Amino acid sequence: AIECRVKGVEKGIVLTENDLVFVTNGSCTEGTIYGDQNHAPNGDAEVRTSGCWNLWKNIAKQDPSFGHPEKFCSDINKTNWESATITTLDEKIIPYITNICKRDPRTGKVVT
């Protein structure tokens, strides 16, 4: 059975051998900690105990074909990454960002 919580109530969804279960797991921002222009992020990202990571770990325990999540979440210093958001009304900055990233930041796509 799939164990889940619906509106705060724990329940199980019974499966048969003919059922298929598709899981979209993970988030590149799971366990995020935030800073701002005046404060560095404070604290320790808890990817080791967060929901997506625990789900992957539990699935991987059942079959090695599901990979090795600990490679991605056991050492934050080796697996972390930084992200920043720029909000500006100054059109003069846009060409600089476009030149560095080779993408117009106004497209809505990721700019790296």
Provide an overview of this structure:
This protein is α+β, with helices and mostly antiparallel strands and 112 residues long. The protein is 25% helix and 9% strand. The protein is built from four helices and two strands. A two-stranded antiparallel ribbon has the order 1-2. It is elongated, with a radius of gyration of 20 Å.
Evaluate the radius of gyration: 20 Å
Spatial strand arrangement across the major sheet: 1-2
Low-pLDDT stretches? none
Kindly state the number of beta strands: 2
Distance between the termini: 41 Å
**Residue share in helices?**
25-40%
Give the CA-based shape: elongated
Structural class label: alpha+beta
Largest sheet: 2 strands, antiparallel
What is the element layout, followed by pairings?
Elements: E1 2-6, E2 9-13, H1 51-62, H2 70-73, H3 76-79, H4 94-101
Antiparallel strand pairs: 1-2
Features:
112 residues; alpha+beta; 2 domains; 4 helices; 2 strands
Quick structural gist:
The chain is α+β, with helices and mostly antiparallel strands. The chain contains four helices and two strands.
